[in-house]
Amino acid sequence: MDETVAEEVAAHVRAILPPHPMAPEETLASLGPYVLPFLPGPADVDSVTAERVARLIREIGGREAIPFARRYAMHESASVRSQFAMSWSRFPAEEYAREVLARMPLADTTLVVSGVDQLRHLRELPAVESLGLRGSCDGAQLRSFLSGVDLRDLLIVSNKTLAELSFLRELPRLNQLGLSGCSALKNLSGLRESPIEVLRVDVGRLTHADLSPIHEMPKLTGLRLSYGDSPPAQQLPTAHPEVETLTIECDNPIAFSSLPEWSSLSRLQIITNMPESRELDLTPLQSLRGLRVDISSLMPSVAPTVVGGEFFGNRLTVHS
Asked: What do you get for the CA distance between the two ends of the chain, in Å?
């Protein structure tokens, strides 16, 4: 296009860029790298606008966006920096690690990693305390790439390869662990004697025996179990003497008969997709003095039928 038309287009783009309150981020992102030179610098905008600009840079992605990501990745706001901590997959892995992630503070945000190509660069980065790992890699790879990384919080999602958790020995200061969508995982023995205080796990088809290592976690105080559409009357793990907060996600009734053995339990959260026609029987829980029960239904305006709930009085809350 000739210079006059080019300048008219550029003027129009500048007019709708942040900090314009109605800046159409999706439309601007669709223009790709053309937009990048027109973006304001991080020193020229407030933190709310900076986050919008960071989202736009993230959505454009690619090698051309790396210099612009680098400028905003040093922003004082963790909300701005988190846009780049969660966007590694939108940029060339090695270059992004070197030019952006290695230069930005990561201790107060969660770094999202997808696969081995990114994981292998982890030790080149400044302190990473919270890591979200998406995609498949096995226990040996995790042992290799996480060794020496001082993690406090680890979430592993959609990993179809991971079968065991022995890599946890490389993470002596890990405080929280989440395991979701790990379809090959059957051996939880790596949880034994781990320092983890909060555990979140998809139960899926794991058996009562498979879950037994949870009982041997010495520092565990918070446990979240997602049963999904597991068979009705699925059992809870063996009672843990120190767990204070237990969250259960279920589409089918869960056998609560063993819960009175959870001697430290003070709060039970139940998140369910069960229809009104299905019953949640709280009667076995009445021996747990002081227990607070919170039931949330994921079905709009529908809550399951609660049996034995009147015993709890104002210690029972039902949301629908």
From this structure: 58
Return the axis-axis angle of helices 47-60 and 78-85, rounded to nearest 10°: 10
Strand partners, 198: 176, 222
Could you tell me how many residues make up the chain? 320
Q: In whole angstroms, what is the distance from residue 225 CA to residue 203 CA?
A: 6
Residue 200 token pair: 């979140």
Q: Classify residue 296 as exposed, middle or buried by CB count within 10 Å of its CB (0-12, 13-18, 19+).
A: middle
| pTM to 2 decimal places | 0.89
Query: Measuring CA to CA, which residue among 99, 98, 68, 69 is closest to residue 84?
Result: 69
Distance CA 309, CA 294 (A): 11
Tell me the per-residue pLDDT of 98-123, one tens digit each, with 9 for 90 and over.
Answer: 999 999 999 999 999 998 999 999 98
Q: 3-state DSSP call for residue 311?
A: helix
In whole angstroms, how far apart are CA 168 and each of 148, 164, 190, 274? Answer: 12, 10, 6, 35
- Name the DSSP letter for residue 312: G
How many angstroms separate the CA atoms of 103 and 188, rounded? 36
Q: What distances in angstroms separate CA 201 from CA 77, 98, 129, 155, 272, one per listed residue?
A: 31, 33, 20, 10, 16
Spell out the long-range contacts of 10-15 with Cβ–Cβ below 8 A and sequence spacing 24 or more. Answer: 10/38, 13/38, 14/38
DSSP codes of every residue in 221-279: -EEEEEEETPPTTEEPPSP-TT--EEEEEESS-EE-TTGGG-TT--EEEEEE---TTSE
Could you read off the pLDDT of 184-214 as tens digits, one per residue? 999 999 999 899 999 999 998 898 899 999 9
